[in-house]
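To: structure subgroup
Subject: Chain for Friday's discussion

All,

I'm putting the inputs and outputs inline so they're searchable in the archive.
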Amino acid sequence: MFILGAFVVEIPDYLLERSREARARFGGTSVEPSEQSAAVVESTTGSEENVPAVNETPEAEIEKVEPPKPLAPWVEAAKNRKKIPVWMAPVALFLPIWAFMIWGTLEEPTSNEVGPIAAGGEIYSQCSACHGAGGGGGVGYQLNEGEVLKTFPDVESHIAWVVNGSSAAGTPYGNPEREGGQRISQNQGVMPGFASLGPLQILEVVLYERVTHGLQDPESLEAYVMWAESGDLPVWESGISPQSIASSFAEFLETNPEAEMSYEETLEEAAG
């Protein structure tokens, strides 16, 4: 330690040791290094050895990312296409069951639900005041429960009765072999003639009465339905006879093989 003026300077031991070694070399003497200097050297060496080695971090390799390949037009269109909603899956599952259940209701309407027979039901409203809405009778004779067919077993005589109305009072009319006897004109009301109706309307109401009240099979009247749909009906004026009407119907059958075949099948079935 040296004192310089007012300042105290402390010299490190290893510098003092080096100074002694230097003087010894110049003076030709050997100086054993003090334990302190050895400790200083050892400390210096140890400190150098204890310095942690700096790990050199290799530079990170930059991964090259290739841009995505463009999608084919059809693939992109498929992805952008509207998808079926999830709730449609159970609906599609039960769709065949629903179709099977509804199939039984899709029946072809019968001839008495559409066509001339059904149209006759509207015209019958003019007859219901006397014969009853259900054909049970009233002022006029009963038609339902097959009574109308007992009186008029054929269509032609039924048409003539609607066109002409009641004959003179006390005159029998209709089927002479009717069960319970023939009907007697004006014994139960007076039947007005309906010649003012067109022939199509007359045929329609006759077919309606025979099917609805007389309980006749509509298929047995198929030839007359074709006659009504043909648009080739004659004009029926008051005083027309069943024979004249039958003659007009026969002329129609000659020009319509389908209607003729249907009528012949009806006659064969009736003959048994």
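Points worth raising on Friday:
The two ends are 158 Å apart (CA to CA).
The beta strands are 2-4, 7-9, 172-173, 183-184.

D.
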